[in-house]
Design brief:
Blueprint: E1 2-3, H1 38-41, E2 43-44, E3 51-52, E4 59-64, H2 65-71, H3 76-80, E5 86-90, E6 98-102, E7 110-114, E8 117-118, E9 120-121, E10 128-129, E11 139-146, H4 150-153, E12 159-165, E13 167-168, E14 171-181, E15 185-196, E16 199-213, E17 226-240, E18 245-260, E19 263-264, E20 270-271, E21 274-290, E22 294-311, E23 314-335, E24 338-352, E25 357-374, E26 377-388, E27 392-407, E28 410-423, H5 427-433, E29 450-463, E30 468-479, E31 482-484, E32 492-494, E33 498-511, E34 516-528, E35 541-550, E36 556-566, E37 579-591, E38 594-601, E39 620-628
Parallel strand pairs: 7-12
Antiparallel strand pairs: 1-13, 2-3, 4-11, 5-6, 7-8, 9-10, 11-12, 14-15, 14-39, 15-16, 16-17, 17-18, 18-21, 19-20, 21-22, 22-23, 23-24, 24-25, 25-26, 26-27, 27-28, 28-29, 29-30, 30-33, 31-32, 33-34, 34-35, 35-36, 36-37, 37-38, 38-39
Length: 629
Amino acid sequence: MFKTRRFMVRHRCRFIPIRPLLACGLLIPGAQLAAQSVLEEVIVGSSRVEMPLRDVGTSVTVLTQDEIVQRGFLSLPELLRTQVSIAATNNGGAGKATSLRVRGEESYRTMVVIDGIDISDSSSPQVSPRLEQMLTAGISRVEILRGPQGLSYGADAGGVINLRTATPEEGLGGGVSAEQGRYDTQQLSGRVGGSFDSVDFLISGAEFSTDGFNARDTDSDLLDDDGYSNRTVHARAGWNVNDSLRLEAVARQVEGDNAYDGCFNAAFLPSNDCEDSFAQDSWRVSAALSQEHFSHELAHSDSTTEREFFAERSPFFSAEGGLQRTSYIGQWRPSDKLSLVYGVDHEKESIDDGSFDRSRRQTGIYGEYQGRLSDSFTVTAGARRDDNDDFGNYLSYRLSGAWLTALAGGELKFKGAYGTGFRAPSLFEISYNNGPFAMPPASDLVLREETSGGYDLGVAWASQKGTYIEVTWFDQEIDDLITFDVVGFSGYVQQTGRSDSRGMELIADLPLARGFRLTGNYTWNETTTPEGDKRAFRPEHLANLGLTFEDAQARLRVGVNLRSSADAVDTFSTELDDYVLMDINASFAVIEGLTVYGRLENALDEDYTEIPTYNTAGQAAFAGVRYEF
């Protein structure tokens, strides 16, 4: 069997809607919490070092392995949709381009890290994670940091999704699972690992395939299914040299093949016979030294991405990207009430698509003060200086605070944070505007960096019996936003002025009697362009609502989940569908270690559109078996 590292969070952030059924959402099932305040037991990595949740002033959501397994989603974006302030759009099924928006900002403002590896694809138009290539298999913990996180993770990190794989207990253990469902969807996954004296290891892998469905309703000639396949292998090994020093190595390989609609053939005529392939190879090595008052970690990671596109079986575009990162992070803890965190990151990104071959470097130096001014009051203050090859120096900072007091048999927590950041134009954006396909006004424009700032203020209450309620207000702004000219297709242009995203998040987790648990979230998100228009594909109302049941022997689990989206517009300000989706999941432990499970997605067979001309999945049933040893 596997457990998470001691700093992996066992807290569940749950959300309850304030507009019943207008914005219903997906269930958030989970294991029962121990009879103690989650603020006491949870530790998170908001600053890339361990901190108890009671001291964290930033907004954090965590999913445990138990919750990930219970929900059953095979795709990471589908899992992330269940969380507060997260909206996603998908271009026609599994493996198709997927955009994830946290608090109304684009995917390329969100960093995705797995076991310390930044998996961003620098060959993309913007340096961003390819979320459509991410499976949930092998992931034991998801930590979502909402709001500007540039202090510790890089000035352009408007949010962070931190993924961890499991750490084995003493001895050998593992598991295998097999699943089959609609659209001829199949997945076989497994993992094995162990811990023996000072050495531990983990190897996990998954094979996923689906025939899919017709990706676009504009495909009236082929009317074919647009399928997708994925193979993911992940490995990690660690050596505890002594009580203070740990060495670790991580390697990851992802390969995906996808069919889609809407490309151009060799004669520059539109075609629906389109394919693309994706390959990403990543690795990381690190050395961590922990002493009485000091801790240090030195790490180097490397991630290379290759993408190739085909029209009617002939290649028409390919791109390669590379992302290398060397980092040092240290911490000085002279007492329980004071900690100083400091670090250096040096990053090199590159892109080569045959038309241009460019690279650049960026170095960041940062430091943060973490002070517990009393048993109930903690503040942090930090600054970061980045030096970019193309755009020079930039100073960003973050302030946060958390204050707790006893209330009604639990703890009431007030929290707040403010952070700033910047994003340099990507290598692709710069090169495209300087290339042969750009036209005025884009070709006449010298792109400059975007700057951003944002704050959130919140209050949460956690009881000794596992109840958790949170309300947060947030507001974040971006100056000089870079976008593609979707009207004249001239290239990348810069919006003069300020783009805003503000709103409110409600979270609730309510244990009920007889094994029932009610969970939910609601997000109100108002987004505006410098001209005052609503920003595209950002629902004003998002919600998740669910009810789970677990019997006294923890053998039977059943969940009914609702997820909704309302008041969104497309690129041309046309209103998109409001929708409510229902998912149902169930699992039964036949014998110790052996579980059978089933899932019904879009149980009401809702017909809805996320992006005009792109189809969405209908009602789909899945069944599988899982064995743990």
